[in-house]
C-alpha cells in the first residue's frame, strides 16, 4: 500500500513537472564567461594576409553549450570595424559543451593590427528531461522516501544532459593588446526558440 501511494505521488509530481516545462516560457540562462588567453601574431592565411591567432577560453557555472551562429566576426582596425568571414580556425564552431568548473578553449584568427574584435555566438542550457527532473525530485525528497526508491530507478534517472533547442544570441567583444583586459560580454536580443542562425 505504501509503495502504491509513493508511486502515485511521484506520478503526479512528474505530470506537474511536464506541464510546467511545456507551458512556462524559456528564459535565457546566464551567459558563459569568456576571456582571451593569448594573442599570437605572425600568421598568414590562404590569401597571403597577415593574421594573428587569438585563443579564447569559455567557462560557465552551469551546464551549457555554445556555437557559431553563422554570421561573420568583426575586427577593429584603425578605428574602423571590418568583417572577418569564417574567423574560427576549424571553420564554423560546432556546439561546444561547457561543464563547470572546466574551461574550454577555441581559436580564431583576425587581421594583424586589430585592436579589438566582436564575435557573435549562440548559447543554450540543458534541454528539459523527464529523467533529470525525476532525479531532482528524488534527491530533494525526504530521506524516508529516497531510501525506498529501488536501485533501478537511480540507474534509469542518471543521464547525460543534451542541449536545449532554445538558442540565445550573444555578442562577445574582446580588446586585443599586450595587456589583456577583462572582456565585455554584450548580450543582444534572445531568441525563445531558435534552432540556428
What do these coordinates show?
With 197 residues, the protein is an alpha+beta fold. It has 2 domains: 2-26 and 129-157; 33-126 and 163-187, Immunoglobulin-like (Sandwich). 22% of the residues lie in helices and 35% in strands. It contains 4 helices and 10 strands, in the order αββββββββαααββ. Strands 3, 4, 5, 6, 8, 9 and 10 form a 7-stranded antiparallel β-sheet that branches. β1 (33-44) and β2 (50-59) form a beta hairpin. α1 (2-23) crosses α2 (130-139). It is elongated and about 65 Å long. The model is unreliable at 19-24 and 178-195 (pLDDT under 50).
SSE topology string: HEEEEEEEEHHHEE
Mean pLDDT: 75
Number of helical stretches of at least 4 residues: 4
Per CATH, which architecture of the largest domain?
Answer: Sandwich
Oligomeric composition of the shown chains: single chain
Query: Could you name the CATH class of the largest domain?
Result: Mainly Beta
**pLDDT < 50 stretches:** 19-24, 178-195
Shape: elongated
In this structure, how is the largest beta sheet organized? 7 strands, antiparallel
Helix content: 10-25%
Q: What is the radius of gyration? A: 22 Å
The proportion of strand residues reads 35-45%
- What structural category arises from helix and sheet content? alpha+beta
Total number of beta strands = 10
Distance between the termini: 53 Å
The structural domain count equals 2
Tell me the CATH topology of the largest domain: Immunoglobulin-like
Amino acid at each position: 500500500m505504501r509503495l502504491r501511494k509513493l508511486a502515485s505521488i511521484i506520478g503526479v509530481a512528474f505530470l506537474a513537472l511536464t506541464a510546467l516545462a511545456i507551458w512556462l516560457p524559456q528564459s535565457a540562462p546566464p551567459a558563459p564567461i569568456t576571456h582571451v588567453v593569448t594573442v599570437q601574431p605572425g600568421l598568414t592565411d590562404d590569401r597571403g594576409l597577415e593574421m594573428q591567432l587569438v585563443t579564447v577560453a569559455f567557462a560557465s557555472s552551469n551546464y551549457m553549450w555554445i556555437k557559431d551562429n553563422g554570421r561573420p566576426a568583426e575586427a577593429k582596425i584603425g578605428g574602423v570595424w571590418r568583417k572577418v568571414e569564417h574567423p574560427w580556425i576549424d571553420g564554423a564552431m560546432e556546439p561546444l559543451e561547457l561543464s563547470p568548473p572546466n574551461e574550454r578553449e577555441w581559436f580564431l584568427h583576425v587581421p594583424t593590427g586589430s585592436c579589438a574584435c566582436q564575435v557573435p555566438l549562440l548559447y543554450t542550457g540543458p534541454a528539459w528531461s523527464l529523467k533529470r527532473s525525476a532525479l531532482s525530485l528524488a534527491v530533494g525528497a525526504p530521506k524516508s522516501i529516497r531510501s525506498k526508491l529501488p536501485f533501478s530507478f537511480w540507474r534509469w534517472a542518471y543521464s547525460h544532459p543534451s542541449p536545449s533547442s532554445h538558442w540565445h544570441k550573444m555578442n562577445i567583444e574582446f580588446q586585443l593588446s599586450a595587456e589583456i583586459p577583462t572582456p565585455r560580454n554584450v548580450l543582444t536580443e534572445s531568441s525563445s526558440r531558435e534552432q540556428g542562425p
